[in-house]
Protein 1
Amino acid sequence: MIQTKLKIKKINISKNIILLVFKNQLEITSTFLRFQEHYESPKFRNKIFTLDEYKLWYTSIKGKFSYYTDWNGFNIPSHILTPFYNKQFKDLTSAENQILELLKNKKEEFYIIGIHKNSRNLKQVLKHETAHGLFYTNKEYKDKIQDKLKQYKLDKLKKSLLNSGGYHSEVIEDETHAYSLDYQVGYLTKIPIFLHFKLKRIYNKYIKQNKININQIIKEIK
C-alpha cells in the first residue's frame, strides 16, 4: 500500500520551540499519537507500545476509540523521539518516520508543538501549545508560573485533568498552567479568574521577550 507523504509546515517560533502545522485533525492526531502518549499518557508514559495496544486501552476508558477527534494540539520535548530513532518502537508509520526525518538534524534539546489548520479555535490552541513550550524551555517563565500556581487551590482542576484519561501526574502542573491560561469553557468553575489574569500577564511578557508573534504565525499558517 502506497502511503502519501503529509504536507507538514515547520516553523521555528523561537530558538528552542518548533511548530509543526498539519492540514487537518486526522493527520495530526494519527501522526502524533505514539509520540504524545509516550510523553504524557497515564498508562503508557515512558513505555514502548503498539498502536493497537493504545487503541484498546483508550477505548476501554472512553467507550470508543475517539482519539482522532478528541485532540487538536500536541506538545512534546525532543528527547521523546529518542526511542523512535533507536527503533525501540516497531512498525513506524510513514507519518511517524516523516516527523523523525524532519527533525533529525537539530541536535540540542528543543520542544515540539503541533496544531492543524482546520482547528475551530486555532489561535487559542496555538497559545496553549506555545505556553507548554515556554514552560519547558524557559526556566524563568516556569519559575514565575509555578509561583503563581502555588497561591491558589487547584485540586479540583488537577483532579478533572487527571480523570480525563489524557494526562500523567508528571505533566499535570504544566497542564494546570496551560488550561488556567486558556480559561477553557469546560474548566471555568475550577479556574480562579485572577490566576488566569496573572498567568496571562506572565505569558504575554515572555512571548514578547522571545519575539513570538502569535498573530504573525497565524498568518503564516493560513
Note: The mean pLDDT is 95.
Protein 2
Amino acid sequence: FTIYTSHLYPVQFELNDDETITIRSEFFDEVRTVYMDGREHPVGGTRTLSGHSIGRWDDGTLVVDTTHFADHRAPYQNGVPSGAQKHVIERYRLSDDGTRVTAEFTLEDPEYLAEPLVHSRELIYSPDVEIDPYNCDPQTTTRFLPQP
C-alpha cells in the first residue's frame, strides 16, 4: 500500500513474502529491503546511506532495526552529519480502520547526539498516489550551498 508522509513524499510498503519487505520512498528514490527471516545484522557488512535493516512483527507492529550506516561528515538534509555507530529503530502501527499508520523513530548516534532522538508522525493511506522519480540533480543544487 502507498501512504503519504508528513513531508509530502509518498512511501510504499511492499510485503514480498515472509522473508522481506521493500520500503520505497519517492524522496531521493530510496529503496530499502527489510529482512524478516530472523537473521542478524552482518558482522563487518557493507555500510550505505540507508544502512542494513532487519525486521520483525511485535503484536501487529512492524519493528525495523537499522545499522551499518555510512559514516559521512557532509551535512545531510537538515545539516546534521551521521556517524558510523548510528542506529535507528522504526515502529509502524496500522490504525484499526486501516487508513493511517503511526510511524515512530528512535535514532541513536553517540558520535553526534548526546541522547536518542525520538520522533513520530502519522502516514495516511493513499491508494491512488504513485511514486514518481525524484529527479534531483545534486550538481545543480550544490550551487545554492555556501562555498568554503
Note: The radius of gyration is 16 Å.
